[in-house]
Design brief:
Keywords: DNA-binding, Repressor
Distance between the termini: 62 Å
Pfam family, one: TetR_N
Protein name: HTH tetR-type domain-containing protein
Structural class: mainly alpha
Order of helices and strands: HHHHHHHHHH
Number of helices: 10
Helix content: over 70%
Largest sheet: none
GO molecular function, one term: DNA binding
Strand content: under 5%
InterPro entries: Homeodomain-like_sf, HTH-type_Tx_Regulator, HTH_TetR, TetR_C_Firmicutes
């Protein structure tokens, strides 16, 4: 059993390493198995094809991403919940940067992650619209961070995300000049 788990881990690591070098569409199963140091038949024990590998990896990474939210709910200080959760999320995205660089180009992935995050945020807001707004904003912020090639450190990104997420937007006023906001 340990050998099987290791082979699967080698496959995933190989894909993530290859994503640092090229796009998913240009990666072949042959390259994945060569990088992983396994046979093609071992690859096919776990995955139907490279798309199945990416789909399963996406599910696992999204679940890992979402797991930070129930942990935050168990903390006693609301400020620490936000601080720790945003740090964990930014570190997570940074650690899987090759995956996120590839997947955040995919509108279906963005939508799936945002919808699942929205469901996880229902315990925070107890309101579907607020949870949806927050989830799409969070994913949008993280996508911009990725698109900007991680110009900020994970710690800096977490601080920015936390500031945005805890801003009292009702305190902002807009000047109405010449019929424009």
């Amino acid at each position: 059993m340990l050998q099987n788990t290791s082979a699967k881990a080698y496959i995933i690591t190989a894909l993530l390493e290859l994503l640092h070098q090229k796009t998913f569409s240009s990666i072949t199963v042959k390259e994945i198995v060569k990088r992983a140091g396994i046979s093609r038949s071992t690859f096919y024990v776990y995955y139907y094809d490279k798309y199945d590998l990416l789909e399963q990896l996406s599910k696992d990474i999204i679940n890992e991403f979402l797991a930070f939210y129930p942990q935050a709910k168990k903390m006693h200080h609301p400020h620490l919940k936000v601080e720790e959760t945003t740090k964990d999320i930014c570190n997570h995205v940074f650690s899987y940067q090759s995956f996120y660089k590839e997947q955040l180009k995919n509108p279906q992935f963005i939508h799936q992650l945002s919808r699942e995050l929205s469901a996880a945020l229902m315990h925070v807001y107890n309101h579907k619209s607020y949870a949806s707004f927050s989830s799409y904003g969070t994913v949008g912020f993280l996508a911009e961070w990725v698109y900007d090639s991680f110009q900020m450190t994970p710690e800096e990104a977490a601080i920015e995300l936390r500031k945005i997420g805890t801003t009292d937007w009702s305190s902002f006023t807009y000047k109405h000049e010449n019929g424009e906001l």
